[in-house]
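Q: How do we represent a protein-ligand complex in a form that can be generated token by token?
A: Start from the inputs.
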Amino acid sequence: MYASFKSIGAYIPDEIRTNQWFVDRMDTSDEWITKRTGINQRHIASDDQTTSDLGANAAKIAIQRAQLEPSDIDLIICATISPDYFCMPSTACLIAEKLGIRDTMALDISAACTGFIYAMQTAKAFIESGMKKNVLIIGAEKLSSIIDYTDRTTCMLFGDGAGAAVISATENKDEAILDIQCSADGSMQDLLLTPGVQSQEKPFMQMKGNETFKVAVRTLTSDVRSIMEKNNLTNKDIDLFIPHQANYRIIKAVGDALKFDDHQKVVTVAKYGNTSSASIPMAINECYEDKRMTKGDMILLDAFGGGLTWGSALVKFSGN
Ligand SMILES: CC(C)(COP(=O)(O)OP(=O)(O)OC[C@H]1O[C@@H](n2cnc3c(N)ncnc32)[C@H](O)[C@@H]1OP(=O)(O)O)[C@@H](O)C(=O)NCCC(=O)NCCS
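Then emit the structure tokens for the protein with coenzyme A bound:
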């Protein structure tokens, strides 16, 4: 049995927060933010919207596009670092309830910006082992709830949103997700962290931006090289290179090092900022809705985030 990427969906909250919002409140400028990050705006969830609301909205679209009913889903995995509740219940359980899915295994994954790739790897393993048939994977974030809006070095980077995909079992090898690799290294845990209840600090995200930037470029470039070599692929075999959307300069540096052409690179960071685990599925969804991605396309995903975690995936899109 193989795992295939059947469908994609996304939900992006309505409110747009432009760079001017930050300029009005702190010592920064539109020019600085645009030049250093490539971000012009980000979307922010309303006060009464939670991460599970965003995730459930994206999931409904993915299930419908997979031509399935919610009752066909036999595993729900939600990647998030901004869950509705601390520890429990999991955001995946809340999404299950919002979709009307009961008696189905549901769990959260905490792998920061690499969360969607970790979720896909987990879905693939469950399917290939024969344990599950239709796995709903979600990357959902209300990062605005864990951002310190007095910290000018991080707050302008992040936005809210969600993306979801259905990964289904198939006997057709041509439809299979080709390969996924996931890694972690806790020795650099202090680069990106959110203090929890055992700390006296405020529960806001903290980041050593400059150091993170350098490690991200180095790690992503070598990780993509390794998955391509392992599968005997060159950049000519890739239709779309969809990296985690953290900073345009990171995407450009990695894309240039790997010699991808502009038409292969997918860049959405200007509109959405960094939405952590949601950024890759939101970008895939945009390619799908713009008809930039069609059935059979080979997509290369790569992500890097707090933990540290990182991962890459070679995915054949097998939806309609
Ligand atoms: C955060 C980031 C945009 C900062 O860009 P940078 O080029 O590394 O900038 P630095 O942190 O070296 O800061 C340069 C200067 O800008 C200043 N600065 C920081 N934030 C600023 C802001 N919002 N507006 C204006 N100036 C700012 C700094 O204080 C520093 O000033 P100094 O030179 O007088 O000390 C960049 O490091 C980054 O994107 N890092 C990775 C983020 C990321 O991807 N995180 C998630 C991983 S998934």
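The chain is about 30% helix and 25% strand. Residues 63 and 166 are 7 Å apart (CA to CA).
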